[in-house]
Amino acid sequence: MDAKVRAAETPAAPTTKAEARPIAAEFFGTLILVLFGVGSAVLAGKYIGALGIALAFGLTLLVLAYGLGPISGSHVNPAVTLGMLLSRRIPAHTAIRYWAAQLLGGIAGAALLLLVASQVPGVRIQGKFGTNGYGTRSIVGINIFGAFVTEILLTFLLVFVCLTVTDKLALTGFDGLSIGLALAVANLVGIPLTGASVNPARSLGPAVFAGPAALSQLWLFLVAPLVGGALAAAVHRITHPTAHSGEEEMPETDQGRKAT
Fold first, then answer.
1. Fewer CB atoms inside 10 Å of the end CB: C or N, the chain?
2. Rounded CA separation 48/170 (Å)
3. Which of 34-48, 115-129, 242-256 has the lowest mean pLDDT?
């Protein structure tokens, strides 16, 4: 009986391992994006400016797209995952796992950044720490409505590009470059306004360690990017109807090839 049980359980191991790899990739990918992207603002912002920070985010995502794309699609962003879900590129249970991994990865990346920043004299963590904000926490003092619309539009750009360049009708080979540039552009425009979230995981991680002021405004940077991602998926269905004709949820083993 024991031998039969062991024989029955043996084939399950590769499946479990295969399912875990994309989740691990999303966790570590989001960790790296927060550590280096937000880290560029926290540790080097006064030296490299908004352009440098935008490039840090864009180049980090570019590297992740090529490194993790074949494994998980390198979403590293709940808004991108939502867009992929609504476009039926991934099933719901995979999206839920991705969201959990991304949010935890964002917090872990911010924790590592906190460890480094704590060793640097003069680095302000309480209240700032690369968090997003509006009103008095915005460089230009943008109001709550303006911040909400800004985050929707910036996230729309990023997710729409992700959906478009990974479309089976689009050219391949430069997908990661287009996605990285889209994030860099979003940051160039958004940094003076809201600090450019376009990613709930990127906003959650630093806010956890920045204190009450950042946490009180966090809801906007969780909700607005998801609205932008959903809007991008809806518009993509209009602009690329053939990509959605006869669509079916793809098997998990094909996620990496389809998503990036």
1. N
2. 34
3. 242-256
